[in-house]
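A quick aside before the break. I want you to see a complete sequence-to-structure record at least once, exactly as it would be stored in a machine-readable document. Don't worry about memorizing anything.
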Amino acid sequence: MSESVRMALFAACRRLLVPLARLLLRQGIGASELKAFVDQAYVRAAVELLAERGEVVTSSRIAVLTGQRRFWISETLSTLDSRVPTKRGLKHTRGQRVLTGWYEDREFQTRAGDPAPLPLKGPGVTFETLVARYGGHGMRPGVIRNELVASGAIKVVPGKLLKAVRRTASQGGADPLTIVQMGEAAGALLSAFEQNLAKGPAEQLPVRGISRTAPDAVVPLFRAQMGKRADAFVEMTEAFLDGSVTMAKAGSMSGSKPAEKGTGEGESTLITYVFASAASPPKTPVFHDETLNGQKLAKSRARAAKKTPAKRPRKG
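That is the input. The structure line, written in tokens, reads:
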């Protein structure tokens, strides 16, 4: 690894870790707790890298890759937490699309333009037809209903009708479902960058984005437009994947040769996320005099250590 790439990685880590540290501090999680997860993540990543290379996984090899102690690695391997399941996050995302359709589609609104109370199923406009239109392929209305009722986004009113209470599936704040989705989205984005840094141009994944300044008054419109366009893009992507899977299955049933083990062909997990970020300019911190003096003292000691030549051991 070149020194320029190394320094760029360090800078990227700072950009990634500061928002994560802010999030953890808001919830009372200290640095020592995060460090425990980081140590476990290094062990898991080393296991995956060794498996990709086709090498036998041992504590010694993990220690060489990560710089951790072997006895600690052995204990960690036996207690590694399983990955967070994505099914609940997927239902949460599809529930959000159902809510958006409920608020945006005139067919499911009252004359005043509000989401109309809907029966679960039956003749006419129902929650079942809403899910069929916006919930994605193969998603059952009862599953979406249970998710949205549990999150408080919809409620059951007299007459066994379902009524939308808010536009978002998340209740806001430290909502567990939103936190799960955050891990999935951030992990998928980093995996895409890892793929692009490790592979050639033909295997790279699309990562696109823009960053520019704009007046604060633009933010609400930006949020609304991004939400609509994101829903449309996700639905288009899902329709494309559903059609591709159907064609692939039809081809295999017509006598196509199945992929052989070890060829690298088979099934892959494809993930698409669209997200927007609006960051306010950082405020200038006000340091206490003791803190500033401590910083100056640390810097002066570091400069002195660089200038002072190392003492050579005397020959006896």
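Two observations worth writing down. The first helix runs from residue 3 to 26. Strands lie at 118-119, 154-157, 161-164. We'll return to this after the break.
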